[in-house]
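Quarterly update from the structural biology core.
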Amino acid sequence: MRLAPLRGETNLSYLDRLADRYRLGVRDLIPALLQVGGGLFKGYRTDGEVYLNAEGRARVSVFCRVPEEILQRALPAWTAQEPLSPDGAGAAGRFRFGAVVPAAGEGCRLRAAARTGRTKPARVYLQPHTRICPRHRRWMLGTHWIDGGPADTEQVDLAELPQMAAAHRRHLDLLRHRPDAARAFEVPHAVIVSWWAQQWPEEELWPHRTRQVTPLGADPGWWRLLARDAVTYPETVALTSVLTNEHTRQRLLADTGGHLPHTLAHAPALVSQLARATRRPWLAERIASTSAGPLLLWVQHCARADADPAITDRLWMLHMAHRPRLIARELTAYRDAAQQPEKTAGGPHDWYQASIRYNWRGGEKLIPTTWPDDNPTP
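Predicted structure, tokenized:
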């Protein structure tokens, strides 16, 4: 029977839905179809990906009655890798999971049901602008794998947060009109997460949004971690708009006068602009003394790029020490605290906050040093 793919869907998700149409599991149908044996899906996880060589792709195309060019347009990883057959010829596949697979998660359930006419979920590759389904007002959390299983498969209901739809429209507009907006997003995201971690007493919008998206009866501390990127999305888009604006960089060069700034106080126009863009008048005073972190590094790159054009290529490179801590690790720490109540009289959330040793440098929270498997503090 013919099965159309969904745009942005993972290969594994498509093949799983194909197998489901025949009332089979993907680990039964695909090895039999490719004649590669049962070892194809060794270490199987639902957040993994399966890659096929040309012969394997041709067989799937014939079986599902969908031309390969359509499958290639819809499935981002369709031709991403070319696994070799043990015999040097014939169909071959490779299953992979973990950090080597780009971020993916369950797509909007309502949209998948409307497109497929079935309740079988579909997994799609998640980019910042595809995490929102504007039609059904849902935010896709992705999969946070903890101890061999997904921590949560919920989707955030955005019905009470109309500003999310507005931020999404603005984000799409940036992607259309500013060439570097897509690769730039990682830097503003790291900056916003560093501000989120401060829990400044003046901050009211993020706690309010967190309460709005937390399901009734759910653990608020757990959902504060889980919904972090959704709650901070409007500000991340606003910051991306500011940093990718050529006028912003021109004013920055005028403020720094060709000198390398050591704090954000040396870029007063930028600090004021960020406060206006995020609608937080108090933010300027909070971040002016920042002397480390992703935002200051970006400012320094801008100041140096005028004298050394080669620096421009590093403008959107995020230092490993500035990468936000994975939500899965945050959830693991929180869950472990909840399982050991005798070690924390104040509850898991208080324990989690108290256990993180901060290295304060001008208001920036660097990588927590409690967990030795993390990136070291610079």
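The mean pLDDT is 83.
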